[in-house]
Amino acid sequence: xxxxxxxxxSQYDRIKAEVDSAIQEVIDTTxxxxxxxxxxxxxxxxSYTGAKHVITCANGTDALQIAMMALGxxxxxxxxxxAFTYVATVEVIALLGLKPIFIDVVADTYELDIAQLExxxxxxxxxIVPVHLYGQCSNMELILELAKRHGLKVIEDTAQAIGAVxxxxxxxxxxxxxxxxxxxxxxxPSKNLGCYGDGGAIFTNDADLAKKLQMIANHGQAxxxxxxxxxxxxxxxxxxAAILNVKLKHLDRYSASRNEVAxxxxxxxxxxxxxxxxKRATNSTHVFHQYTIQVEGISRDELKEYLAEKGVPSMVxxxxxxxxxxxxxxxxxxxxxxxxxxxxxxxxxSLPIHTEMKMEDQAYIIESIKxxxx
Length: 374
Ligand SMILES: *Cc1c(COP(=O)(O)O)cnc(C)c1O
Hints:
- This protein is of the alpha/beta class.
- It is built from twelve helices and 14 strands.
- It folds into two domains: about 10-250, Type I PLP-dependent aspartate aminotransferase-like (Major domain) (Aspartate Aminotransferase, domain 2, 3-Layer(aba) Sandwich), CATH 3.40.640; about 250-370, Aspartate Aminotransferase, domain 1 (Alpha-Beta Complex), CATH 3.90.1150.
- It has helices spanning about 10-30, 35-50, 60-70, 90-95, 115-120, 140-150, 205-215, 240-250, 250-270, 300-310, 340-345, 360-370, and strands at about 55, 80, 100-105, 125-130, 155, 165, 175, 180-185, 200-205, 220-225, 225, 275, 290-295, 350.
- The structure holds pyridoxal-5'-phosphate.
């Protein structure tokens, strides 16, 4: 048995003919930079997500940086960001000389705690970055309401939630990344829509903002060699776009497969005294980038080690809250500032979930976990 967190090889095997011919076509035409596949993928992604404009770029971290540059955030400005998330979100805030204002998360949905949001807003606050962690949307209705009231920009980090759908109280539905001023995503291989290297994209419904984003991603030029603003060099390779063009067609099936795996885990552990299964938000679908349990009453790390011995991989996303990372000590936060995030770092465990999970493999994973408690 060879169980992996993510089985990209079997996924490739199923679409090999399509992918191989798409790659070969790029090589045959040698249009490695900005080939026609880049544009066609951007267009397909726009129609898939419902975003009016999609700007592709080199990775999800760049997407966040370009977003903050396009919104004109200035050094010293404050941006509110969850303490419990991947580092990229706060990293670009720091790199641009902005000030990360951490906020704790909700223990069972992992979204930023909206109840604490208003208290964090000061005269210097310019933006909020909700992260749709593990694959379901934060409560965008409340976040957008609050942002509007205080004149703040909203950047949705949807690197883990592409395809998730949020339903507003009036029944309107929108995809992750298309509700705020800007949405950002990543095509890192293990993401739900992953390429075979690095890639990223930025979503917006605002035509002026789209122009700015496009310009910044391309050295600050709208016309070649005429630089209107300081930009960056952040491109999606044509090869990656060609691969993504193929994989986007399968994304709904991929999300459905992930949900089947999640449902089977839910069934297996829903009454387990030591395992808390992930709570599904009532107003968002889930695309299960991760299936993350909370281990209660016993040592998460001992369970992880035990599973490893049985050939079952598992991961801790994330072991340290961002405000306690060495790199971010300069912002004056202390242990105890974000108790929910800090506790989650000791309890969360993500189990193997991917698009090609075999039933017998999942049965073995479940049996292995249960046997730890016997
Ligand atoms: C993966 C990820 C990113 C960064 O994406 P890269 O393409 O690796 O730069 C940003 N935010 C979150 C929440 C992520 O999961």
